Every structure is written in structure tokens, then in C-alpha cells.
Amino acid sequence: MKKEFVVIGLGRFGGSIVRELVKQGANVMAIDTDSERVDEYARIATQAVVADTTEEETIKSLGLWNFEHVIVAIGEDIQSSILTTLILKELGVPQITVKAQNDYHEKVLLKIGADFVVHPERDMGIRIANNMMSNSVLDYLEISGEHSIMEVKANESIAGQSLIELDVRAKYGLNIVGITRGEEIMISPNATERIQVGDVLLIIGADVDINRFVKKVIQK
């Protein structure tokens, strides 16, 4: 059975979510107050609707509480974002993800019941900054306010060491959960696995610990 989602707000962020969910085989209802945007996604989404989701009757008429996950990707209108989230929560939508404009917006969203809050512009800025600061950092994904997953390219400073010898868990509080070596991908690699130059290490942990590891070990 296909998963079913609703995306409210078809700007750049919301539109990209619609495209990716559809690409992965989900059923998606796309909603916006702008008829031109809705027309654009009518050819992509399972269903595209022009609607104002700050009206409770509108949300009820669309049956949005029947969907397992609703993404509120409304752009600059913080009031509409908050009102929509509040109504969805009161109607019992199981999972609500909301795009936040700033930290204050996030606090309000969490207080009224949003399950997940994302800061796409901030998160992308952090990712770009991390990539620019080090040639060894290939990718970065924030998984909470203080924890991330990072792809780091191994260099000569750690080549030849096994994971148990490197011991990043004890020294840095990190976990190496995967290694990519050419076409080979090792998930939960064995502790005796020796790192080679060019290996891509998938590291998870607190941001402060990841940065400490990269500066002291990878960039030295």
C-alpha cells in the first residue's frame, strides 16, 4: 500500500518535497492558495487543490486527518503556518512536519504540537559552510539541533588504522556507522576493518564532537 502525504505550500521547499515523494512512489495531495502553483503541480502530484488551510472547514472538507503525514511548507506567512498547524493538530493528524522561518516560529510550532520542525535555509547554510571549510567533508545532514551525520573522506593521517584502534567512540563520542570504498558500502563495519586513503566514513554524533574530530584528526 502506498504511503499518503499532504504538502501545504508549493514554494521551492514544498514543491521539492512533492516531487521527491512522488518520485519515491507515494500518493501526494498538493495544496496552495495560488492557482498557478497548483496548476503546475497538478501534473506531478496525485491530487492538487487550491485551498486556504487556515479555515477549519476547508481542512475538514479535504479530509486531511485521514492522511498519515502532513507537511506544512507555507512560505513567509507565519500566521498561516501556525493556524494551519493548530487546526491539523486539533483534528488529530498523526504526524505534522512544519517549515519554520526562525527560532521563535519553531518554539511556537512545537508548543502547539508540531511533531517535526525544519529550517531548510539554515540547514542548507550549515551544510554549505561545512563543505567549504574542509575538502574532507563531503556531506552534512543535521538530525537535531545539536547532532548530525557527516560524510568524511579519510586521509593519510588515519589510513592503516582499524576502527578499534581509531576508537572514535571513546575519544570523541562518535560512531562510524558506515564506510564507502569505491563501489563497496559497508554498513556497521567490523571493528577490525582497516581504513584506507579515500574511504568515505559516515559519522554520527554531536556537532561539537564531529568538529573536534575533523579538526584534530582529518585536517591535521
TrEMBL record:
GO terms for biological process: potassium ion transport. Residues 135-219 form the RCK C-terminal domain. Residues 2-118 form the RCK N-terminal domain. InterPro entries: NAD(P)-bd_dom_sf, RCK_C, RCK_C_sf, RCK_N, Trk_Ktr_HKT_K-transport. One of its GO terms (molecular function) is monoatomic cation transmembrane transporter activity. This is Ktr system potassium uptake protein A. It comes from Solibacillus isronensis B3W22.
